[in-house]
């Protein structure tokens, strides 16, 4: 029985040209080798399974190749290349930093660096997972990494660059590996399936590439599992079954139910998804990605961002034509909020079902002014079509427009012309309410005291008929409208005069409200209200406050000034804190907001308790020796000294 080798090892790249998805790195390394511009230390960092260790091995083999190709590739035929492929090269050392992370391991490595290579030009050290080294090991490695021998080259590989000391990073030439795209992964898997004579659908390989998220090693391992599961025939359905991935058909079915506002069908489809073992957050993630793809399919320029197969992309484009961008953006926002709050929801199933119900009636819940043809949201119009914007004018001023000028002759024609001497009285409309209306106000004609005719202003284009009363006037000649420019300032000034009068009335009213009959300040009334103020704290069982208030002395300093005399500084500070409360209480009781509260400190009442100054050790001994001479004798006999 032939020994089976997993695809990740069997199809591991052996030269730079077979590395998938890292052309920006392989090109740089080949040019550096051809131009003989190699650094003494390299750092390969990036996600797992993207070719860091593979590129490190290819670089180590190519550097020592005896017959280097013109394109910068190794020949794989010389003694150095063959020994490397067989794993028997003495010039290439690979070290796992996860199991050799101590200072002793690095010290052993430094001792090996001192010896020149037996064959070949360089001695290469590949340290994988270098971020697992301890801080002491990093520090022990610094000097050798900064100034290695001319024949030594270090290649470090890591998935977590942020864990490496900055002093190490500054000594290395850093290469950042990127995730392998889905299309590159699919192409590589198809090439392997062709070599292994495996029948695989393109949609199935797309699922494998999406599941592994840019990791080629995981893609190859997953391919081996599915080949064993399907006996060498990969289809879309059996790949879905093996990988336990939520099918896109579910999302198309849910979208159809949502567009038809069929809540029951949408909830039944979601229940079917739950019965297959998928969680609600998986459904929300896939549903949001589905709507995102629909939104991208609305624009041909963004179509390449939809990473699905060709047949599925056509279904996306067909469905996206039935939806507007406004609807898709609103639905994405709703799903994003649902996914954020999913973790905090008690009833997670109901939480997702409520989102589906909202999506069913999203068109009715969100009202947007949009173009049916393009789906673009139009801006709101501030002025209806066919209506000219009106200019702002002073209150009471008459608008000057072409419409009023053309309507003026019709208004004048309603007034019959008559001779000056025998003219009958003319009825002129006069508004009953002088208050300004929404339309332009009607000017009231005034009779002239002189027998000569006086020009009278005629009504100008009123919006609605106003109740009128007949007024007899002397005979008038042809009416001439007064200039509009003179009416606006007059109306504005009258309006301002009315505002000033209203302000004066409000001020008088406030002054009248404040002029409430106040109680005169007397010591008797002050003491009565003071006891009432103390009783409030006594009922609240605040005896400390009560004691300070009881000890205070009250004085009448003026007609509206009350003084509080404190006996000590503690009581004085307490009164400062309660000053506003006491003042408001007295103002309310006496109905006098002009009351002023003054605090005073009676220094004569303070207790002057100043004791004698403390004695030093020598003074204490002298007093004791004067009172008890035996103490001095004891000091002299024992040759004791005072402690200063």
UniProtKB/TrEMBL annotation:
Pfam families: DNA_pol3_delta2, DNA_pol3_gamma3, DNAX_ATPase_lid. GO terms for biological process: DNA-templated DNA replication. One of its GO terms (molecular function) is DNA-directed DNA polymerase activity. It is an enzyme of class 2 (transferase). Coiled coil: none annotated. Its EC number is 2.7.7.7. InterPro entries: AAA+_ATPase (IPR003593), ClpA/B (IPR001270), DNA_pol3_clamp-load_cplx_C (IPR008921), DNA_pol_III_gamma-3 (IPR022754), DNA_pol_III_sug/sutau_N (IPR012763), DNA_Rep/Repair_Clamp_Loader (IPR050238), HLD_clamp_pol_III_gamma_tau (IPR045085), P-loop_NTPase (IPR027417). GO terms for cellular component: DNA polymerase III complex. Keywords: ATP-binding, DNA replication, DNA-directed DNA polymerase, Metal-binding, Nucleotide-binding, Nucleotidyltransferase, Transferase, Zinc. CDD domains: AAA (cd00009), HLD_clamp_pol_III_gamma_tau (cd18137). Residues 38-181 form the AAA+ ATPase domain. It catalyses: DNA(n) + a 2'-deoxyribonucleoside 5'-triphosphate = DNA(n+1) + diphosphate. DNA polymerase III contains a core (composed of alpha, epsilon and theta chains) that associates with a tau subunit. This core dimerizes to form the POLIII' complex. PolIII' associates with the gamma complex (composed of gamma, delta, delta', psi and chi chains) and with the beta chain to form the complete DNA polymerase III complex. DNA polymerase III is a complex, multichain enzyme responsible for most of the replicative synthesis in bacteria. This DNA polymerase also exhibits 3' to 5' exonuclease activity. Belongs to the DnaX/STICHEL family. This is DNA polymerase III subunit gamma/tau. It comes from Chitinophaga eiseniae.
């Amino acid at each position: 029985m032939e020994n089976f080798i997993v695809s990740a090892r069997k199809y591991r790249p052996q030269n730079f040209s077979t590395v998938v998805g890292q052309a920006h790195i392989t090109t740089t390394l080949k040019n550096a080798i051809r131009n003989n511009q190699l650094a003494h230390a390299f750092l390969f960092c990036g996600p797992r399974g993207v070719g860091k260790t593979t590129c490190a091995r290819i670089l180590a083999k190519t550097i020592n190749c005896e017959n280097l190709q013109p394109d910068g590739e190794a020949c794989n035929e010389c003694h150095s290349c063959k020994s490397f492929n067989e794993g028997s090269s003495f010039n290439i050392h690979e070290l796992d930093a996860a199991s050799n992370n101590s200072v002793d391991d690095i010290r052993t490595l430094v001792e090996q660096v001192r010896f020149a290579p037996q064959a070949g030009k360089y001695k290469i050290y590949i340290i994988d997972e270098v971020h697992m080294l301890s801080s002491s090991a990093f520090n022990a490695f610094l000097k050798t990494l900064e100034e290695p021998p001319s024949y030594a080259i270090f290649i470090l590989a890591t998935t977590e660059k942020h864990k490496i000391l900055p002093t190490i990073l500054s000594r290395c030439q850093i290469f950042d590996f990127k995730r392998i795209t889905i299309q590159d992964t699919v192409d590589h898997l198809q090439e392997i399936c062709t070599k292994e004579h495996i029948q695989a659908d393109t949609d199935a390989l797309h699922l494998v590439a999406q599941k592994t998220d840019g990791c080629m090693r995981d893609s190859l391992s997953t391919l081996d599992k599915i080949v064993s599961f399907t006996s060498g025939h990969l289809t879309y359905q059996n790949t879905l079954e093996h990988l336990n991935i939520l099918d896109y058909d579910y999302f198309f079915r849910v979208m159809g139910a949502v567009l038809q506002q069929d809540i029951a069908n949408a909830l039944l489809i979601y229940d079917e998804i739950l019965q297959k073992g998928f969680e609600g957050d998986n459904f929300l993630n896939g549903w949001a990605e589905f709507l995102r793809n629909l939104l991208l399919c609305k624009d041909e320029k963004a179509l390449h961002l939809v990473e699905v197969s060709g047949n599925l992309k056509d279904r996306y484009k067909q469905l996206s034509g039935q939806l507007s961008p406004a609807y898709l953006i609103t639905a994405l926002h709703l799903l994003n909020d649902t996914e954020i709050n999913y973790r905090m929801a008690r009833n997670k199933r109901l939480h997702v079902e409520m989102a589906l119900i909202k999506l069913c009636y999203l068109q009715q819940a969100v009202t947007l002014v949009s173009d049916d043809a393009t789906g673009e949201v139009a801006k709101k119009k501030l002025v209806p079509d066919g209506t000219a914007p009106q200019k702002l004018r002073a209150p009471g001023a008459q608008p000057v427009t072409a419409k009023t000028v053309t309507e003026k002759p019709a208004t004048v024609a309603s007034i019959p012309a008559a001779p000056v001497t025998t003219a009958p009285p003319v009825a002129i409309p006069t508004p009953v309410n002088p208050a300004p209306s929404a339309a332009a106000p009607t000017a009231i004609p005034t009779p002239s005291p002189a027998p000569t005719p006086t020009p009278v202003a005629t009504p100008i284009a009123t919006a609605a008929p106003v109740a009128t009363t007949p007024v007899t006037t002397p005979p008038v000649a042809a009416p001439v409208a007064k200039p509009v420019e003179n009416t606006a300032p007059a109306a504005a000034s009258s309006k301002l005069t009315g505002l000033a009068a209203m302000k004066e009335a409000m001020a008088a009213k406030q002054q009248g409200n404040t002029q409430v009959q106040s109680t005169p300040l007397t010591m008797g009334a002050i003491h009565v209200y003071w006891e009432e103020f103390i009783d409030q704290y006594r009922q609240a069982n605040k005896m400390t406050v009560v004691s300070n208030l009881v000890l205070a002395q009250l004085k009448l300093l003026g007609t509206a000034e009350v003084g509080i005399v404190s006996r000590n500084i503690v009581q004085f500070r307490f009164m400062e804190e309660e000053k506003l409360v006491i003042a408001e209480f007295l103002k309310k009781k006496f109905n006098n907001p002009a009351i002023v509260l003054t605090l005073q400190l009676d220094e004569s009442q303070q207790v002057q308790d100043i004791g004698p100054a403390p004695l030093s050790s020598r003074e204490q001994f002298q007093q004791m020796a004067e009172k008890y001479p035996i103490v001095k004798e004891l000091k002299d006999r024992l040759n004791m000294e005072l402690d200063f």
